[in-house]
Amino acid sequence: MEEKISVILPAYNELANLRLLIPSVSASLKGRAYEILIIDDNSADGTKSFLENQSDSNLRWIIRTHNTGFASAIAEGIENAQGEIIIIMDSDFNHSPEDLSPMIDLLKSANFVSGSRFLKGARTDYSLRTFLSRFFNYFIRLKLSSSLT
Predict the structure, then answer these.
(1) Residues 56, 36: Cα–Cα separation, whole Å
(2) Could you report the per-residue pLDDT of 39-95, keeping only the tens digit for each?
(3) Which of 45, 61, 133, 139 has the smallest number of CB atoms closer than 10 Å to its CB?
(4) Taking the CA of residue 52 as centre, how many other CA atoms within 13 Å lie in the half-sphere pointing to its CB?
């Protein structure tokens, strides 16, 4: 039997993106056992109402009013995930849903798969955020003597 996949989407005021992202993730995982778990930090943009009106049995959500923030949303998502394979994605399309199936397939020969904006062929916007991310990534690789990006 195929392992169930849990896609964790931390969100705060991401309604416009979630409207597109949820169907896109579902399409990418068609034919697989999966759940999409939205961890929302009590968004003021109507996310809760949108989620409550969804009929997708693969969709679950947690609306948080305390202990909010990106890292704690990821931790809570992992704690509540029902799948054996856990995927963490940004809710702003920073990660492409089309990459899910190829990455999941790589798990047949690996214990861990990670995408990186620093690999050849990766997409990036070359903003200050990308520059700082590259700098931090380089610093961590030096400190850990690692080539993982």
Answers:
(1) 10
(2) 999 999 999 999 999 999 999 999 999 989 999 999 999 999 999 999 999 998 888
(3) 139
(4) 5
Closest alpha carbon to 90 in 5, 10, 28: 10
Q: Sheet containing 59-63: which strands, arranged edge to edge? A: 59-63, 34-40, 5-11, 85-88
HSE toward the beta carbon, residue 107, CA cutoff 13 A = 17
Give yes or no for a contact between 31 and 2, defined as CB atoms under 8 angstroms apart.
no
136 token code pair = 């931090």
CB of 77 closer than 8 Å to CB of 37: yes
Q: What is the pTM of this model?
A: 0.82
Here the tokens at position 116 are: 């990186």
15 SS3 class:
helix
